[in-house]
Amino acid sequence: MKMNRDSLVDKDMWAAKGVALPQFDVAAMVERTKRAPAWVHFGGGNIFRGFIGSLCQKLLNEGLCDTGIVVAETFDIEVISKIYEPYDNLTMNVTLKADGGMDCEIIASVAEAFWADAEIERLAEIFSQQTLQMVSFTITEKGYFVPAAGQKNAMTVLADMLHKRYRSGGYPIALVSMDNCSQNGDRLKKCVLAIAETFGDSGFMDWLGDAGKVSFPWSMIDKITPRPAKPVEEMLAQKGAEGMEIVVTSKQTYIAAFVNSERPQYLVVEDSFPAGRPPLEKAGVIFTERDTVSKAERMKVTTCLNPLHTAMSMYGCLLGYERICAEMGDPDIVALIRRLGYVEGLPVVVDPGILSPSAFIDEVMGERLPNPFMPDDPRRIATDTSQKIAIRFGETIKSYIETGRDLETLVSIPLAIAGWLRYLLAFDDRGLPMEVSADPLKDELQAKLSGIIWNDPSSLGSQLDGILTDVRIFGLDLTETVLADKIKAYFMSLLGGPGAVRETLHRILRT
């Protein structure tokens, strides 16, 4: 059976396959949304379909709202043509549990989905309606930029739509970035204001700057939603679900009619919605003030999850792992991230009050990372590492300095940085050539490491100095701390030839 709206009437068939169905009249929801849209979302990828869309579905199932979401895609037209349109905007949401269980649910909360350029008049009509309460975004961190004159992206489309809303009545609206980047609301606001200035409309600028009319709430989002996995595709095929093949678009977007993701999920949002909002707290979203959102985000990205992910991805690549969960069976890698989180991070963690840092990291170590049914790849995590180091490691280093703690006690952080530099040499621990994931500073950094041979410690001269001084990367000049020499020593040890990465990890962390 192919997943589409017609097939939803066969409830017994889907129940026999163990698939939960929407508990509301989908056609009626679509019609109500078209007449009076309340929620537009930019970015129709996996995190939206597997998390945000399911939040709205929960409200619809329980009768807590009666309209769905309008999805506007601005990056990859094939997401719409190959994944949304053929399946009547439905998604098979697959939750992969650590005990091996798999929960499947058809998400039907998307009322409309379209390529924004092709439906710009429809999008303008939606933005002009007073019923619209919020616009949310999962366009990735890279989506928040002001393009060159004459070029278009999500931000230019948004600014144009907001101008139309202003001229249609100036109705209030909340613009909610749900992307995994620090102070995401401010990042969104800066882009919108920069583009809006080019319109030459002072009244429009005043409207955008009035928090009572237009708000840019901050948020913290956390849910691992990796690329669709072949084993999940095969399991769904065994259930008799048709058309679940994985699609790789011309823009290298990995997507399918299904989304596979982990069970734990967190969304903390600043409660600033001048036009009102759906009661998403009933679906598990935590609404709070901006400072608490900031603390929750800082807890996650500087201590309880992201640093662990980055550290294990570097060493996972060097040691030949292809899945994060497999790394959790490696005592040396586990020792690295356990010390990183519990011993080095928790003493200076920012406690948001709404989430327990220790309980959060317990869940990460005990359930999330070891989940054998979460097919996440360390090479994916290793992408853009130069853009992540400052927040994931640099902030903890600065906290140690600010609180007068002894930097000499740090082991996992300098070892993680040394591992990243060794990874950039593009040879694994066996000495085999290894692909280095995409990174905007990749060429620059590899040029600075030129002359260093992966199996020759004597080839190390002063090459690291030009990197360790880079405040862009680390958030501070590491050569002004004792950590620079420690990183160099660890890095030299990692250059000891085949098996040196393994030996270094074991010796430093477990002997």
- CATH superfamily annotation of the largest domain: NAD(P)-binding Rossmann-like Domain
CATH-defined topology of the largest domain: Rossmann fold
The outline comes out as globular
Alpha carbon gyration radius: 24 Å
Classify the secondary structure makeup into a structural class: alpha/beta
CATH architecture of the largest domain: 3-Layer(aba) Sandwich
Give the strand content.
5-15%
Low-confidence sequence ranges = none
Mean pLDDT: 96
Structural account:
The strands form four sheets. The chain has a six-stranded parallel β-sheet with strand order 6-3-2-7-8-9, with helices on both faces. A four-stranded mixed β-sheet has the order 1-5-4-13. The protein has 511 residues and is of the alpha/beta class. It starts with 10 loop residues before the first helix and ends with a helix. The longest helix is centred in the N-terminal third of the chain and has 16 residues, at 46-61. It has helices at 11-16, 26-35, 46-61, 77-84, 120-127, 154-167, 184-196, 202-208, 230-238, 290-304, 306-318, 324-327, 331-345, 357-368, 378-381, 389-402, 412-423, 442-448, 465-468, 471-474, 483-494, 500-510; strands at 19-20, 39-42, 69-73, 91-96, 102-107, 110-115, 134-137, 173-177, 214-215, 219-222, 247-248, 254-255, 258-261, 266-270, 286-288. The chain contains 22 helices and 15 strands. Helix 10 crosses helix 14 and helix 10 (290-304) crosses helix 16. It folds into two domains: 6-288, NAD(P)-binding Rossmann-like Domain (Rossmann fold); 292-510, N-(1-d-carboxylethyl)-l-norvaline Dehydrogenase, domain 2 (Orthogonal Bundle), CATH 1.10.1040. The chain is 43% helix and 12% strand.
